[in-house]
Fold this sequence. Notes:
This protein is 24% helix and 29% strand. It is of the alpha+beta class. The chain has 3 domains: 3-73, no CATH class; 83-198, 2,3-Dihydroxybiphenyl 1,2-Dioxygenase, domain 1, CATH 3.10.180; 207-332, Alpha-D-Glucose-1,6-Bisphosphate, Chain A, domain 4 (2-Layer Sandwich). Helix 1 (7-23) packs across helix 2 (30-40) and helix 2 crosses helix 3. The longest helix has 17 residues, at 7-23. The chain is elongated. Mean pLDDT is 85; it is low at 54-77 and 196-201. This is Bleomycin resistance protein. It comes from Occultella aeris. Keywords: Antibiotic resistance. Residues 54-74 are annotated as: Disordered.
Amino acid sequence: xxxxxxxxxxxxxxxxLRTALAAAGIDVGHSxxxxxxxxxxxxxxxxxxxxxxxxxxxxxxxxGDPSGTGGNRATATSAVVPILRMFDxxxxxxxxxxxLGWTVDWxxxxxxxxxxxxxxxxxxxxxxxxxxxxxxxxxxxxxxIEVADAAAVHAALATKDYSFAAPGLEEVxxxxxxxxxxxxxxxxxxxxxxxxxxxxxxxxxxxxTEVTIPLEPGAAFDLFTSFTWWVEYGREIGAPxxxxxxxAFENRxxxxxxxxxxxxxxxTHWAMTFTLxxxxxxxxxxxxxxRPVDGGTRVRLEHGGWDARNGERRGKFNDWxxxxxxxxxxxxxx
Length: 334
């Protein structure tokens, strides 16, 4: 019988593994050594190993071993546990334990002076790993935590004496949210999902802005797609603009791409992705239509591509009338 080690035994084995690899010139982080150890026991990951050992740290049997009581518990799990970077455990503990009301399940250091690695659990069973190890997570990570009652979460937090957070209760198209930031800048959003509207592929309506300019459609198209009229909003004064497959502001402090060109149909339609002040992994989209009218061209800008992945930022893009006002002024100066 090949028995899965207890949690404590596994941590000792992981330390030995990491030391042996270091001696061979192979440097692995704390979390990586735990994952490697779990796989050496034939398990999917470290979380599965812990689940197999059980909360009391008792050993279990490998999946498929009929002689052990833990035989059926060593199967792959669907749980995903984010690893968040932290820099100060005392501050993190004040936030997660004192403010959020979570509990510390366990913590580990390879030596007393080395970085700490901790698991914390919410009253509803959500788990997070917090790590002081370099390479374990990136500060500013966003985590979405589903809850049954966001209002209850908000009410509970409002009773806490914690001067570094005062979250609101927000209504978004896919549900109700409460968002807080931990001391290392990680963002935790508690979401009470609103049925089908929580689907990430459900798009929200575009932001639409229109303006009429005294140029014929071809000239309006050329002026708009040059982006030389764009002032501020990511572009330094007088900075050159590159428009090829990508639109970018060539600022003195560094090049700033704002999107990739999707469609050029002069003089009626221009489309591009839009990443300015957004996560490039979930870009939105600009569609600009040019229609001839008496005295010039009606320009209609549609800022779309909003869904559950990026929709929380939609309300921040309310300056399109100002931006297109600058475009209109440039057109009148031609």
